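Need tokens for this chain, all 497 residues.
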Amino acid sequence: MALHQSLQQKLLQKLSPQQIQLMKLLQVPTANLEERIKEEMEENPALEQSEDGHDENLDEDMKDEFESPEEEEFDLDGSADEYENLDISEYVHDEDEIAEYRLKDDNYPELDEGKTIPHRVESTFHDSLLDQLGMLTMSEEEKRIAEQIIGSIDDDGYLRRETNSIVDDLAFRQNIQVTASEIESLIQQIQQFDPPGIAARNLQECLLLQLYRKQVVSEDPSIDWAIRILEKYFEEFTKKHYEKIQKGLNLSDEDLRDAVGQIIRLNPKPGGNIGDTHKGETYVIPDFFIYNNGGKLELTLNSKNAPDLRISEGYREMLREYDKGSKKDKRQKEAVIFIKQKIDAAKWFIDAIKQRQNTLLVTMQSIMDHQHEFFITGDETSLRPMILKDIAEVTNLDISTVSRVANSKFVQTEFGTYRLKFFFSESLTTDSGEEVSTREVKKILSDMVEGENKKKPLSDEKLTDMLQEKGYNIARRTVAKYREQLNISVARLRKAL
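Here are the structure tokens for all 497 residues:
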């Protein structure tokens, strides 16, 4: 096949680097925004954050992240024409002008920078175990081995690392030669620490360790039965095959009920009772606050979303010195071009942060208006069907933009803190033709399960019949899907003695 050249025209849609940056900023939650701003300030020395307060002003005109800017920015490549036509007047003659991003709203008090913020100090789970280890009398080598074992325990209290692997860790990392039997001996000592069940290899051992501790201080026969159930019929117990257990151990109904009662009162995750190593990372920082002021909803944005950013005065001063100088060589001009690029990048980042604030507020305002009844009453059954397209049409934003806002964002109300995705749900048609939110159906389904007779739990078929009696046109497989989404077990596993 012969090679040939041809001329073609193609129409392509491409995102500029600024638009990509805005998309990434939009999906950053409030908890991570401060870190993102610090990264930008480290990369761009022309960007600074004021310590005087925070910016409360937002642009009136909101732009969609996919809307192309009217004027495309261009990069200076250092050509001769650029050196000759270098104009920095707009960068140096703005002393009397107040930039919009530096304005402040007098209606809001300034943050008290001198205020001391207390930080909670708590002991971690592993710290508690090390403190108890210090009460034992042992050699220095045994202590180092025990510390290695404690360090291998997971946050929930389980020792999931194999004994031979711990032996290898000690040999290669600490040059300690130890046998598996010596490791097991120390593990048994650590299993006597508080809370009971620590350093168990699996759930069965964890529950048995707690029962053995109870057996020492109590002569209750139900504890002995509970131990025999877990030792011989653990799998049957997890599947609630109580008839097989009762027959195998020749237990009466009352003895079986007391023994199962002993087991279900045990703690399957003993490490959860003590401080969490990463608990600070689990705190939810809301992006929005909604207040009910006499029946009128008021929406505010977390102040961390409105940092007071500005252009470095030192960079402006460098441009002023260049503008005043008479002798301007090529090296100076190259430095000025670099400064202009950094200032332009800083201005764009400030505008992107402001546009992010606008998009967040407008999107949340539309969600609040759509789910007004819920924010007034807090009743989940009052939630209306709402999908991303509904909000996109109201705000004139792209669906993907709304999706980025709803992702990893939280709103704090007087009824609790919710993910924004909580308010989005599909619709379900009732017998009367009315469209209701699937969230409403899930709430009713959850209430049915909570109010059921635990000795005779409701099956999926029965739940379907009850929902249909209430007028909800729903199939059994849909009920099973909603039940799984609500983390509700099947009827057999919900049965109680």
